[in-house]
Amino acid sequence: MAGTDRTQVAAEAATRGPAIILVRPQLGENIGAAARAMLNFGLTEMRIVKPRGGWPSKSARAMASGADIVLDRARVFATFEEATADLQRVLATTARPRGMVKRVIAPAAAAKQARRADAAGEKLGILFGPERTGLTNDEVAIADAAITIPSNPSYASFNLAQAVLLIGYEWFRAGPMPKSPASAKAERAVATPATRAAILHLFHHLEDELDRGGFLKPPEKRPRMVRNIRNIFTRAHLTDQEVRTLRGVIVGLVGRPPIPKRPRSKVTSP
Fold it and tell me: How far apart are CA 5 and CA 157, in angstroms?
């Protein structure tokens, strides 16, 4: 179904909205189709984590059907952590239960949350995993909530572009939630949500001290313990000040500054 007004593309590109983050997408064609789905609903910020076919991609450009502005602005990241570092809210799409305490919401509720964040000047991102396997448990654990699309329980199989299209549609349908600049500024001054980078630094600080104290044992249980601890904090929607306070609490308890930053081993999902 075609109905593109090229004169309106630049105007649509000015629309704010959530960052669409494609984690380890497998095919350039799927990236292009996702870009097309995004622009249909005024979303233009695409972030790509470690695309399997490399970047830039001719097949993505061909499949985008004119959604070039999305691909031209797309940013590629080497890691999931780098792609989410500046975000204050993160939602993760998933099609299956994860065996963790994580708030699960439908696309319509996710869209309303994204609109509220947008109106408050907060940066929100939505994660989409690889086409074949989806996001890992560790990636879902870092999100504030999980989005599940209601579907046939015996066949919940969406391709990447379909999932992006459904989320984009709900975002567009939710409409703007206007808020006066003064009100939004006052809210941010009182409680600025912490960025994902600040929260990850808190996690690393806490986990380093728990390792030194012998809490995260035995080794085979460590990944699940770490995910459970991270889920506790992501459910709290921590502010910048709260993160600083918690890091101060850790320093106060152990009586030493944080361990210098070092490369971290991957927490492997079961």
Answer: 32
